[in-house]
Amino acid sequence: MLTSKKLELRRSEIRQTLAELAANDNPTTDETRKMGELDAEYHTAETRYRAAIISEDEERRDAGTELETRSDREWAEVMTGFEMRQVALALDEGQSLEGQTQEIVTELRNRGGYRGVPVPWEALEIRAGETVAAGTPNPMRTAPIIERLFAGSVAARMGGQMVNVGVGEMEYPVTTSAVTAGWANGETGNVPGPAAYATVDRPLKPDHNLGVQMRITRKTLKQSGAGLEQAVRRDMNGAIEEALDKAVFLGSGSAGEPTGLFAGASAWGISEVAVDAAASWAAFRSEVVGFITGNAATGPADVRALIRPEVWDAMDAAIWDAGSGITEWDRMADALGAVMLSHLSLEAPTGSPAASKAVLTTTAGGVAPFFVGTWGAIDLIRDPFSDAQSGALRLTALATMDVTVSRAVQTRILTGVE
Q1: Least packed by Cβ within 10 Å: which of 7, 183, 386, 399?
Q2: How many domains are there within the chain?
Q3: Residue 140 in this model has a pLDDT that exceeds 60
């Protein structure tokens, strides 16, 4: 029993005894002395009770912090024991799952239906012997409802967040109206009237399915052994990462693809600026000013940029100060928070002179510029017929994804960057 609880019970007993003694109109000498002793004991217990409450409050806060983070750590520790090799052998030879792999698969099946073997997103990480112990948090996990993006993903480095949705859809209400503020004109004047508070929904919908197929030959199954674990993991990781990066930025919104930032810019209200000039820090700097005046950033260090490698080549060759050798690239790289180069997430330069597009993003108020939604886990299905003659194993990994933006002012697109 807690010390505070014991003291509280004792104080209650003292109050009850004092009430009985106080009801006596003619107390004896012993009863009078006993009332004095009980009164002194009550005051001492009161002081000890307050001290115990303060001490136990600190213990409760410490225990609460431990309980808030324990579930994430325990789940991460269980995930380190998931083996893709067991999944491949179960689909190929019918071998039974065992250990932590069996526990995870059973848990995922209880949450939703899968035709094949469900594979958690965490299992696609490229493991290098890392451990999660002694309460060390996983730096890739930013919030309880936010799942990780793959380590090398351009979408992750541009500030995007992956949100895992169990079933149904998820909507992000975004404010579209402003509060009216103004001064009363005179002593009896009225302040400005109220403005309607309106929002627009940014939904994530499970309408887009990504499939990754791989064929594992019989020689690979018999020869690789435990090495097949990392091989399958790396292949699926790279394929999904490449498809995800393309969808986030270049998704057409048709033929099954989600709507990317470029295709959805006009509908989402993302600002598109035609540079139509040689790539320079001045062109990017004017857009940073747009972020600052839109209250989306406080300085250039809050802004991230995504450009083509050809743009970097041109900027690094453009000398801004011949005396010091400072280039346009040096100026931009020193000012911005981060600059990413990608040939997968941006279309190749076209025209004469060759021009491409660039993307600027910022994280304002702790809100990511865009979200990537995933539904449930990865559904891994075996095709037992296509490669039956050769004894090979053909696997199909199905994942449901979608893309949406948060606030349009957190993203800007530049076109005609020569």
Answers
A1: 183
A2: 2
A3: no
d(CA 395, CA 317): 47
Question: Does position 148 have pLDDT exceeding 60, yes or no?
Answer: no
> What is the domain-level CATH number for residue 285?
3.30.2320.10
Residue 407 located in a structural domain:
yes
Do residues 126 and 60 share a domain?
no
Q: Please list the alpha-helical segments (H only) found in 193-308.
A: 218-224, 227-250, 265-268, 281-293
Tokens 């009363």 correspond to 184
How many angstroms separate the CA atoms of 203 and 172, rounded? 6
Which whole number is the average pLDDT over 221-249? 74
pLDDT at 326 over 70: yes
User: Are 43 and 35 contacting, i.e. CB atoms less than 8 angstroms apart?
Assistant: no
Confidence band, pLDDT 50/70/90 cuts, at residue 151: very low
Do residues 125 and 62 share a domain?
no
In this structure, the strands spanning 146-147 and 199-204 are unpaired
Report d(CA 14, CA 56) in Å as an integer: 23
SS3 (DSSP) at 352: coil
150 and 234 in a common domain: yes
Name 211's Cβ contacts closer than 8 Å, sequence gap at least 6.
Answer: 396, 397, 398, 399
On whether both 230 and 366 belong to a single domain, the answer is yes
Number of residues written out for the chain: 418
Please give the residue range of the domain that contains residue 272.
Answer: 121-167+210-418
What integer pLDDT is reported at residue 142 of this predicted model?
Answer: 28
Cα–Cα dist 324/216, whole Å: 56
Report yes or no on 199 lying in a domain: no
CB 401 within 8 A of CB 373: yes
